[in-house]
Amino acid sequence: MKIAVIGSGYVGLPTACGLASFGNDVVCIDNNEEKLKILNSGTMPLYEEGLQELYEEVKDKLKFSGQTSDINDADLIILAVGTPMADDGSANLQYIFQAAKDITPHLKNDAIVATKSTVPIGTNDEIERIINRSDIHVVSMPEFLREGYALHDFFNPDRIIIGTDNENVYNRIRDIYISHIPAERIIQTNRHSAELIKYASNAFLATKIQFINEISDLCEQIDADVSDVSIGMGMDSRIGRKFLNAGIGYGGSCFPKDTNALEYMARQHGVKLGLVSSTIRGNHDRRFNIASRINDQIKNLDASAKVAVLGLAFKNGTDDIRYSPAIDIISNINYKPIYAYDPKAMQNAKKVLSSNVTYTKSIQECVKGADIIVILTEWPEFKELENAEFEKPTLILDYRNLLDSGKMTIKKNVTYKRIGQK
Hints:
single chain; 14 strands; UDP-glucose 6-dehydrogenase activity; six-stranded parallel β-sheet; Rossmann fold
């Protein structure tokens, strides 16, 4: 099949490379000239585990273009452009509507337009009105790719949702995946249900994160350990272990945007989503609560002390800093300079953080001689602190519960504090 993917971001690129690996001829369209130069040089412009390697394998089946007319022979056009959060919390749909307008003159007869972007209920109805052609089929097909694990999720999806009432269109899309994905994981719904499945899924996961963070706060007051509580809860198959890691709150391009958009959408329909609203407020407050905790530890330091922060990305496995709690926390630490290191996200962080931050080339350089070390992203390489020696008294604030507390609490010159312990 010939496929076009509109957008070459954290969703578009893994999707394009994955579909090319299935043997499809794929063209990826983007209007960012700088990004296209990078792509056409053979380099991925973002970090995603395994993406560069997969591209090298499929590059003969994949091309990049800034010309929308290059979709003119595509059987399937996938919309994977951003739907960022507007000031009022709603989803900003200008990019996806513009994409729909741009592709319309170039769509061949009987083409399918599938929306991967996360969009509010009714958005695909509007896309259908924009295209305004009875021979074109508009489908809602939300993505469920986790940043850092996007390729794993593409090739091993929990489900593929195809939102269409047209059985023939459903089967045409299903045929792309059926040789690679178990049939029972491919689900047909109507468009509105497909749109809501994505929002409801992300809101539920965000609520789960906020819930365990609140339980973590309680643990700190009653001499319980949130790690043990999480394990005990997660062993219940009705609950599950995933997304029960206490920390600094959720971030990234999805959960903050999608919870706010869902709340806004419900409000527009006269429905109050109290649980979602509480999750949004709690997660917002979480990062500033963490910053306050750090400031309480810093306030007695003299001017020559060194504060080191490990982690800038909103989670490990990505260079994405969008709505990263780490960025807000660092911005609210009352000390300068702050030494920082992240294996992938420093170039992006430099664009938004103040000059009070000094970026280092390695973990070792960042933490050397530090009086306080703060862990804000759960990169596995930060676990090398478990084997490090500290020549001076050092306070380690592990806000991701990444390190082995058994090793850290007996380490010479180290005072070690975790989330969710008294």
